[in-house]
């Protein structure tokens, strides 16, 4: 089993920045892909950004150039640096980790005011 603890969400004005963190613990000897999804009210959960254990990344088109995903393998932690935030980025952001199976964080709310 893998446990994930997220932090860093909050309320920010448009144009501002936030940094999300997600720390993994438990059976983490085989962490592969780590990343972030988000779900806005009334919408489906969607990919934001993922990073492999080799450092390869993939981003949603809507966040390219504004968001950066990174990981610290020594700390088993994945980060999401979000810059130039827009009201449409408002959502609950979920951490995901692939370690044999997929594990999800509890979600952290990000609200961007106009």
DSSP E strands, number: 11
Radius of gyration: 13 Å
| Mean pLDDT, all residues | 95
First-residue to last-residue Cα separation: 40 Å
| Major pleated sheet | 7 strands, mixed
| Class from helix and strand fractions | mainly beta
The helix fraction, in percent, is under 10%
Shape: globular
Number of helices: 0
Elements, N to C (H/E) = EEEEEEEEEEE
Instruction: Give the DSSP E fraction (strand runs of 2 or more residues).
Output: over 45%
Model regions low in confidence, pLDDT < 50 over at least 5 residues: none
Descriptive labels:
114 residues; seven-stranded mixed β-sheet; four-stranded antiparallel β-sheet
Chart the SSEs and their pairings.
Elements: E1 2-7, E2 10-13, E3 18-26, E4 34-39, E5 46-51, E6 57-59, E7 67-72, E8 77-82, E9 91-99, E10 101-104, E11 108-113
Parallel strand pairs: 2-11
Antiparallel strand pairs: 1-3, 3-8, 4-5, 4-9, 5-6, 7-8, 9-10, 9-11
């Amino acid at each position: 089993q893998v446990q994930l603890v997220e932090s860093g969400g909050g309320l920010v004005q448009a144009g501002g920045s936030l940094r999300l963190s997600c720390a993994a613990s438990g059976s983490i000897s085989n962490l592969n892909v780590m990343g972030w999804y988000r779900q806005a009210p009334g919408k489906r959960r969607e990919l934001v950004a993922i990073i492999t254990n080799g450092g390869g990344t993939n981003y949603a088109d809507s966040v390219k150039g504004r968001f950066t995903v990174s990981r610290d393998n020594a700390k088993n932690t994945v980060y999401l640096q979000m810059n130039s935030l827009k009201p449409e980025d408002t959502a609950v952001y979920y951490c995901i980790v692939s370690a044999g199976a997929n594990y999800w964080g509890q979600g952290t709310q990000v609200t961007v005011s106009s």
